[in-house]
Amino acid sequence: MKWERLGHRRNATNAHMDRASCWLSQGRIEAAFQAMAECEKVAREEAYATGYIMASWQLGQAAMRLRRAD
Q1: How far apart are CA 41 and CA 6, in angstroms?
Q2: Which one-letter DSSP state was computed for residue 67?
Q3: 52 with 39: CB under 8 angstroms?
Q4: 21 contact partners, CB below 8 Å, separation of at least 6
Q5: Could you tell me the pTM of the whole model?
Q6: Are 43 and 51 in contact (CB under 8 A)?
Q7: DSSP 8-state assignment for residue 22
Q8: What is the sign, positive or negative, of the torsion defined by CA atoms of 1, 40, 48, 17?
Q9: For 37-55, what is the mean pLDDT?
Q10: Which residues are CB-contacts of 24 (< 8 A; sequence separation ≥ 6)?
Q11: 51 in Cβ contact with 8 (< 8 Å)
């Protein structure tokens, strides 16, 4: 990713979340779930609260569609 090459991990994560959101809308649920899980992990590591909240919410949306919600 362009942002990763430039050293902007948050921007790269945001771009990845945007892509995963599109996948969720397209019905590519498993791909979206995996991507959102990675985005959530990175946001947590970066202490990026907004990114963590957004990724967690989207991850939950994907989990519900995959029937993985607790």
Answers
A1: 20
A2: T
A3: no
A4: 32, 58
A5: 0.81
A6: yes
A7: H
A8: positive
A9: 92
A10: 32, 58, 61, 62, 65
A11: no
Residues found in the chain: 70
Cα–Cα distance measured from residue 16 to residue 1, given in angstroms and rounded to the nearest whole number: 9
C-alpha radius of gyration, the chain, whole number: 12
The conformation of residue 57, written as its DSSP 8-state character, comes to H
CB neighbourhood size of 51 (10 A): 20
Q: Which two tokens stand for residue 58?
A: 């989207």
Per-residue pLDDT at 70: 57
Question: Domain segments of the chain: what residues?
Answer: 2-66
Which residue bears the tokens 């990675």?
A: 38
Instruction: Note the pLDDT tens digit of each residue in 23-45.
Output: 999 999 999 999 999 999 999 99
- Distance, CA of 28 to CA of 62 (rounded, Å): 9
- Tell how far CA 52 is from the center of its chain: 9
